[in-house]
Design brief:
Elements: E1 6-15, E2 18-28, E3 33-37, H1 44-52, E4 59-64, E5 67-68, H2 74-79, E6 82-85, H3 97-106, H4 115-121, H5 123-135, H6 151-164, E7 169-173, H7 181-193, E8 199-203, H8 207-213, E9 216-221, E10 224-230, H9 231-236, H10 238-243
Helix pairs in contact: 3-5, 3-6, 5-6
Bound molecules: adenosine-5'-triphosphate (ATP).
Protein name: ABC transporter ATP-binding protein
GO biological process, one term: D-alanine transmembrane transport
Keywords: ATP-binding, Nucleotide-binding, Transport
């Protein structure tokens, strides 16, 4: 069997007495589109934070393409091809869109503490940033400042920042939150256009868009995997209805 893009085994995270992820295991194949759903407080974001290394689990293991990354620092996971967007936007509002993407790229590079060298001779970074803006429909907006953009444009920018890193595994945390129905459709078309060499794991509450996107769905509840399977298996499972739809 080929190595999974991401394999999580027995992941447990406690905050004091509260167990936020409880013995969570899942296997996500290369190229898969996986949706993670569950009620508020189910532990979805905490799971993402452990995958990225923002939080250390109390026990369990995370492998990316066969390599144990559980103890790696976030930047080393990023260097191996992990990227994420955040539920809360993390942009520099007074900078231009193009500069925001370039800044996100600099996080990857060794020379990030030497800005003069970068500015003198890094047209490659600006080209990469421009391509990524193009990819999310913001190709003509690179010179605008983030402060002048709409919320929907910022969410696209955030996606451009993640895509600019040429990720192998992309984590999207509620990428449609706060968007109008038209913006949701536009952004979900962008997801559909992301090539299959990128594995995508999405947390999302908007079921219409998320179900159209997902091939496999994992339902979390009180930190545990309750249901997992294909879209139709999960939707028809009575436990999903009970937990997630409150029926
Ligand atoms: N740093 C922390 N310290 C203590 N408790 C925390 C911490 N981070 C999260 N929690 C708790 O862990 C639980 C799970 O939170 P988490 O944000 O992972 O849930 P979620 O499924 O992403 O929810 P939502 O859909 O509301 O974003 C919640 O009860 C939350 O209050």
């Amino acid at each position: 069997m080929n190595a999974a893009a991401l394999e999580i085994s027995g992941l447990t995270k406690r905050f004091g007495g509260l167990v936020v992820t409880r013995d969570v295991s899942m296997r996500i194949a290369p190229g898969e589109r996986r949706l993670i759903i569950g009620p508020n407080g189910a532990g979805k974001t905490t799971l993402f934070n452990q995958i990225t290394g923002d939080l250390q689990p109390n026990s369990g293991c995370i492998r990316m393409f066969g390599e144990d990354i559980t103890k790696l620092k976030t930047r080393h996971r990023v260097a191996r091809g992990l990227a994420r967007t955040y539920q809360i936007l993390t942009l520099f509002p007074q900078e231009t869109l193009l500069h925001n993407v370039v800044l996100s790229l600099l996080g990857l590079r060794l020379e990030r503490w030497d800005p003069w060298r970068i500015l003198a001779n890094r047209s490659d970074l600006f080209d990469l940033a421009q391509d990524s803006l193009q990819q999310v429909g913001l190709g003509a907006s690179g010179r605008r400042r983030v402060a002048e953009t709409s919320y929907g444009e910022r969410r696209r920018l955030e996606l451009a920042m993640a895509l600019a890193q040429k990720p192998k595994v992309l984590l999207l945390d509620e990428p449609l939150a706060g968007l109008s129905p038209e913006e949701r459709n536009g952004v979900s078309e962008l997801f559909a256009a992301i090539p299959r060499d990128v594995t995508i794991i999405m947390i999302e509450h908007d079921m219409d868009v998320a179900l159209a996107f997902a091939e496999q769905i994992t339902v979390l509840h009180f930190g545990q995997v309750i249901v997992e399977g294909t879209r139709s298996e999960v939707v028809s499972d009575p436990r999903t209805r009970e937990i997630y739809l409150g029926e």
